[in-house]
Amino acid sequence: MAKPDSALREALEDRDPGNLNNHIQIVWSDIVGEPEGARSPECAWRLSHVCFSRGRDCCYTLLAVLVAPPCALLLGCGFACLAFEQIWCTTPCLRCLKIYFASLRTLVQSCMAATVAPAMEAVGHICRHIRVNIRRDAPDDTDLLVV
């Protein structure tokens, strides 16, 4: 059985278990690349890579320390409001509409069965004797519909 500390440590290590932010993986080779014929000296390339990596890490850390907690608070409040709205407003309203429209559907089905269905059956009875024969060798001026 794993210790509770190890479970917490594991949760802190995998900070994106749902792979939400794979599209913003920022690595040096995805941003800067020198083609053949346009090469900087090795020391400049390495120094640029170190400056990029350290600058990115320091800036992200600073922003995460200063801005992430207020953002997390706002996001938490926003999602709480969203959950409240869904639980107490939207879902009950949708349930009421579902109940209302079930009754309305029964009414409309009854009206359709009493009016439209007999009319369509009569039209179907009339149209069931229509036969269409298409002949490829028929002259263009003759009627192709035979009743």
Strand order of the largest sheet: 1-2
Rg of Cα set: 36 Å
Low-confidence stretches: none
Which shape, going by the Cα principal axes?
A: elongated
Summarize the main sheet: 2 strands, antiparallel
Strand content: under 5%
- Straight-line distance between termini: 84 Å
Number of strands: 2
Helix content percent band: 55-70%
The secondary structure category is mainly alpha
Structural summary, described in words:
- 67% of the residues lie in helices and 3% in strands.
- It has five helices and two strands.
- Strands 1-2 form a two-stranded antiparallel ribbon.
- The longest helix is centred in the middle third of the chain and has 47 residues, at 68-114.
Helices and strands, with pairings:
Blueprint: H1 4-13, H2 28-31, H3 42-66, H4 68-114, H5 116-127, E1 131-132, E2 145-146
Antiparallel strand pairs: 1-2
Produce a short descriptive summary.
The protein has 147 residues and is an all-alpha fold.
Features:
147 residues, 5 helices, elongated
